[in-house]
Design brief:
alpha+beta; three-stranded antiparallel beta sheet; 3 helices; 18% strand
Length: 106
């Protein structure tokens, strides 16, 4: 059985009254998130209510979406390839050189 609870006894040991949110997933393990700001917890409760879910279910959905999102590109060239890669490349016809490159002056 899944459990989502706010551990009030733990509050006395956390800075500025922050809480600990315990998420336990049946057969899948548990996650404890410490120092949850009260405002963040309240926003999670509101979001869960808007979506017709429990806090635990909403947190699980947020985690799922965050992990399932494709990773950001590592560089500008990777971002461009990701954006236009499906279109394909372009082969350019380069004109032949008519002159030899000159030597640099040192």
């Amino acid at each position: 059985m899944a459990v989502a609870k706010l551990d009030k006894d733990w509050e006395q040991f956390t800075p500025s009254g922050a809480s600990r949110l315990v998420l336990a997933f049946s057969g899948m393990g548990a996650i404890t998130i410490r120092n949850v700001d009260e405002q963040l917890k309240h926003r999670l409760q509101l979001r869960a209510a808007r979506n017709g879910r429990s806090m635990e279910s909403e947190a699980r959905e947020i985690l799922r979406q965050a992990v399932d999102t494709p990773d950001a590109p590592n560089s500008l060239i990777d971002a461009l390839r990701q954006r236009v890669g499906e279109i394909g490349g372009v082969d350019l016809q380069l004109p032949p050189r008519t002159e030899q490159p000159r030597a640099p002056r040192l």
